[in-house]
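Q: I have 212 residues here and want to know how they pack in 3D. Can you give me a structure?
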Amino acid sequence: MKTYSLEAKKRTELGKKSSQKLRAQEQVPCVMYGTGDEIIHFHAHINKFKNLIYTNQVFLVDLSIDGTAYKAIVKDIQYHPVTDAVIHMDFIQVKEDVPAVVSLPITLVGTSKGILAGGKLRQRRRYLKVKGLLANLPETLEIDITKMGIGSVKKISDLAYDNLELLDPAQAMVIGIVSSRLAAKGMEAGESEEVGETAEGGEEATAEAAAE
């Protein structure tokens, strides 16, 4: 899993007015939830977050708050409803000897024989939620689609990764190959007898909005 270094400062004041003042200085108010009831409030300049959040990659954050080192992952991001500027972020502290829950991006490997035959790929999930030790978390979760023909689907229950526990519903569909005829009708894989299963779930986001 890739790492991202972030230096920040601990907040000396809390509350709405303090947060507004920080944002006026192009600082992003943040919260890190630690073990137990530990909560740390901090802030950093908005420019320090660009390569962390404007990407489909998921990072282990080497976070330094006033010189104290932590390891964390991004939990939630709140954006301004008009400008889309980042106005708040939540982090979760993680430790090397304690399993972490992370949503990791999917990478498709190979060329499906169904696509070569004229089928269309339908991907319903681009991230999978997994649980595992930091040392076992990969950058992406690979799915080999080489043997998938027209009408084939892969569900969570069809996937397995060493030393990782998949946390999404077992019957949730991840990807499918639909015929060009069905694709032209706007039908998804899992919506016809040709595939045989109803698609579940949708694309997952890396983070949900979180009000401060």
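Q: Anything worth noting?
A: The radius of gyration is 20 Å. Residues 63 and 70 are 5 Å apart (CA to CA).
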